[in-house]
Design brief:
This protein has one domain: Tetracycline Repressor, domain 2, CATH 1.10.357.10. It has 9 helices and no strands.
Length: about 190
Amino acid sequence: MSTTRTQLLDAATSVVRRRGYAAFSYADLAEAVGIRKPSIHHHFPTKADLGLEMVSRYAADFTARLRAAQQGGADAVELLEFYAGLYREGLPDGQACLCATLAAEAEAVPEETRRAVARFFTANLDWLTLVVTDGIAAGELAAAPSPGQAARGFLSAVQGAMFTARALGDVSYFDDVAASAVAALRPRTAR
């Protein structure tokens, strides 16, 4: 990937994570990267092309980080805390998860990008379900009505906390909700 292409992806991702997909233009990117607007079209002919590439890159990085954490020997509680930490990372700078931001404005996002966002969340739910399943088997997590239901609840809690913390300008709100979501999945004796 060219340096300019990477700079464009970085700038676009940052803007979308702060302001949303509908709130940025190629003129914003041209100014941020220091190139002319027509040069952006050389790398990304349409905003839809750029959006899809942003999601692909973000999802690949997110998945690689989850895989690395899992291979590092962390237990289920540590993996859930790590997962929540990925959502927390951008909050001090006013950034939300790229895919969550795009999901929140689905009607403004091209169909192919919406499908890529859906694949991101499906992969996340599959990963969380496996973590919960393994955590229950190891006695690290309490048996829930179902691991899938626990995974959906955890993902929803983390995402909701991320958006609310950003709206409040209070990262500690996210920290409290994430800690409560992890604690709710632990066996009663471990709480």
